[in-house]
Specification:
This protein has 101 residues and is an all-alpha fold. The protein has 5 helices and no strands.
Length: 101
């Protein structure tokens, strides 16, 4: 980042601010540092995909991250809260399909 900077007005939804604050705390950074870094990363991604946002989304969806960077404990914690019901194939056969009496 250049030595000169200027503030810009930017309204962000409360939910996004909460995510920024949580992420900034996890990374031991300020919200402003995180926003600047995130913008830099996002702009580089857009440049790399020819400024095609749809391509950037697809590219991110197909990218893989090392397992160490994933918060697997959080995933396990979330899945424990809302477990998938254990159903046998017979349960699905009993379910009426649309249009059936």
């Amino acid at each position: 980042m250049s030595s000169k900077s200027r503030p810009i007005p930017l309204a962000l939804p409360t939910a996004l601010l909460s995510k920024l604050d949580e992420t900034a705390a996890l990374m031991h950074r300020t919200r402003a540092q995180l926003i600047r870094d995130t913008i830099e990363i996002g702009l580089e991604d857009l440049r790399r995909c020819g400024y095609n946002i749809a391509a950037a989304v697809v590219d991110k969806a197909h990218s893989t991250a090392p397992l160490e960077s994933l918060h697997l404990s959080k995933v396990a914690e979330d899945s424990a809260k809302d477990p998938v019901p254990d159903r046998s194939p017979a349960d699905y056969a009993k379910k009426k399909k649309p249009g059936q009496p």
